[in-house]
Design brief:
The complex is a heterodimer of chains A (109) and B (439). Helices cover 31% and strands 17% of the residues of chain A. Chain A is built from 3 helices and 3 strands; from the N terminus they run αββαβα. Chain A has 109 residues and is α+β, with helices and mostly antiparallel strands. The N terminus and C terminus of chain B are likely disordered. Chain B is globular, with a radius of gyration of 23 Å. Chain B is an all-alpha fold and 439 residues long. The interface between A and B is large, with 45 and 43 residues.
Chain lengths: 109, 439
């Protein structure tokens, strides 16, 4: 599966769409938080696979974030099967937050 | 369902929200009662009015919000569904009815087995038993045997002992000679409130601070120190073992709390989010005020070694800094970290991705939150001054500041509870035409 630092054009486009999804607690988009691990686009099978994690187990809004990703990607790719998989390995660490994410976090509420 | 997710485990909002509404109203009433109790607080002895005020604060405000918050947080901490939503609703009704009955009985009849007291006390005990069944029933289902869960489960046992002993004091006042009043207070304060706070705060604070890789060994040590110290303290009160046993117990308990403090301070230092929102600002203030509780609590253990008038004030500052200081501030702050999410999920869970929704942090008035933050600090400082200088006027002024605090807090609570759906169209980043992608 394509890691997020090695995406083709369509997969980058998918990542941009996922950037519209914020973590409701932090107010920063989940891509810059480093929660998206892998994105893969299968043109022939009309399928998109996304692997992601959460910053904490038991996150009260975890289901909602996953559903949000699924909905926005499905909206932009009608007819595609969008599979959002939650993984706990590798464990998320703060090092995964991008520079933009860090800046946004401190400018936030 | 994905392991570790809690949204589907969360109870129906109608189970949890009434607790927040009731708690915020009880806090307003408590500040009004405090105004008329100022004279008694300035003197410092236990009086009918003080017992009435304390029970409105502890049962109507603190326990009410803790029960509600815990029904919501159990899925987060234990990663299971709540054992029974019906029991949770029934425990709200019984606690909500029992608390005013007890408060009225204390005000007019002090510690006596009036009909009001018997009815109110029984309702509160029934509520607590239902809460115990519910939380232990949930704890039995969890495979998540963390130290935080151990704190929560242990606190529930101490809570049961607290209320059973409280009712026993009313029924059999002659047991007061066995230090049962002090035991009741310390079971409630250290065993129930503090043990629970340690368990819940140690889960939530690192989560909200976004702090990772924390060493949980100090929480293990805190567990054994606080419980061990508490048992020694209770035994020294029951068998009247004298001051040295109490000092030893006080030292061990204080050590335990310092371990807990160290763990949370570690989370604070490692936090990624440098700017603190109002919820976390209040939580940090709570921990700062907790230092007063630890110091005065430990000094109180010296008992008769200290001059009687100073000891009375120490005891009062110990109790007041815990109830009006640490616990109240923590609840004020954690409301902003829990209630908006519950309401947000209820309203927007099915709308995300289809519309642009507000964030949970946008659902309250920031001006009201900032105002009650400063009014609380002013009110608390006046309260401490009033106790230290035995000045009822300062305590009355404090009550007015606290009333403003409670009113702004209540305004924000009800603003969040009454939040109406606000949706905007989604805006997406500009994409290249689909045709180009398919080439």
């Amino acid at each position: 599966m394509a890691k997020i630092d090695n995406l083709n054009e369509t997969e980058q486009e998918i990542l941009e769409i996922i950037k519209t999804v914020p973590d409701p607690e932090v107010g920063v988009n989940i891509v810059d938080l480093g929660l998206i691990y892998e994105v893969e686009h299968f043109e022939r099978d009309k399928k998109i696979e996304i692997k992601m994690t959460l910053s904490a187990r038991g996150c009260p809004v975890g289901d909602t974030i996953l559903m949000h990703v699924q909905t926005v990607v499905s909206n932009m790719f009608p007819g595609y099967y969008v599979d959002v998989e939650l993984v706990w390995e590798p464990q998320w660490t703060p090092e995964l937050i991008t520079e933009d994410g860090r800046a946004e976090m401190d400018n936030g509420f | 369902m994905h392991a570790g997710l809690s949204t589907k485990n969360a109870p129906s909002p109608k189970v949890v929200l009434p607790y927040y509404a009731y708690g915020s109203i009880a806090f307003i009433i408590a500040t009004i009662v405090m105004f008329f109790t100022a004279g008694d607080l300035a003197v410092g002895f236990i009086t009918p009015k003080i017992l009435s005020l304390v029970h409105i604060m502890i049962l109507g405000w603190i326990t009410m919000i803790i029960f509600g918050a815990l029904y919501q947080l159990i899925p987060v901490v234990m990663e299971v569904k709540l054992y029974s939503e019906k029991l949770a609703m029934a425990s709200f009704i019984t606690l909500g009815l029992g608390t005013p009955l007890m408060a009225i009985s204390f005000w007019f009849d002090f510690i006596s087995d009036t009909h009001l007291m018997m009815a109110g006390g029984s309702l509160v005990i029934i509520s607590v038993i239902m809460f115990v069944i519910n939380t232990l029933g949930s704890a039995l289902q969890t495979v998540n045997k963390t130290i935080e869960n151990k704190f929560i489960v242990t606190s529930i046992f101490w809570l049961l002992l607290t209320v059973l002993l409280g009712l026993s004091i009313v029924l059999f006042p002659n047991i007061l000679t066995y230090g049962s009043f002090q035991i009741h207070i310390h079971l409630g304060i250290i065993g129930w409130f503090m043990m629970l706070v340690v368990g819940v705060a140690s889960t939530l604070m690192p989560m909200f601070f976004i702090a990772h890789q924390l060493n949980k060994n100090c929480l293990e040590r805190a567990y054994w120190a606080i419980n061990g110290g508490l048992i020694i303290l209770l035994a020294s009160m029951f068998f009247d073992l004298g001051n040295y046993a109490k000092i030893g117990a006080g030292f061990v308990i204080a050590l335990g709390f310092m371990m807990f403090f160290k763990y949370n301070f570690g989370a604070y230092k490692k936090r990624l989010r440098r700017s603190l929102d109002i919820g976390m600002k209040l939580s940090v203030l709570a921990f700062t005020l907790f230092v007063i509780t630890i110091i005065t609590g430990f000094l109180s253990a010296f008992g008769s070694i200290i001059d009687a008038s100073i000891l009375t004030k120490l005891n009062l500052i110990y109790g007041v800094s815990l109830i009006f200081g640490f616990l109240t501030t923590l609840i004020l702050g954690q409301m902003y970290k829990t209630l908006p999410f519950i309401v947000w999920l209820k309203i927007y869970q099915d709308k995300v991705g289809k519309f642009k929704t507000p964030l949970p942090a946008d659902m309250h008035s920031q001006e009201a939150a900032d105002a009650h933050y400063f009014f609380f600090i002013g009110g608390f400082a006046l309260l401490m001054g009033g106790i230290i200088f035995s000045e009822a006027v300062l305590i009355q002024a404090s009550a007015l500041f606290m009333l403003v605090t409670a009113s702004f807090y209540g305004y924000n609570t009800f603003k969040i509870l009454a939040h109406k759906e606000k949706l905007k169209p989604l805006t997406f980043p500009k994409m290249k035409p689909r045709v180009a992608i398919k080439k």
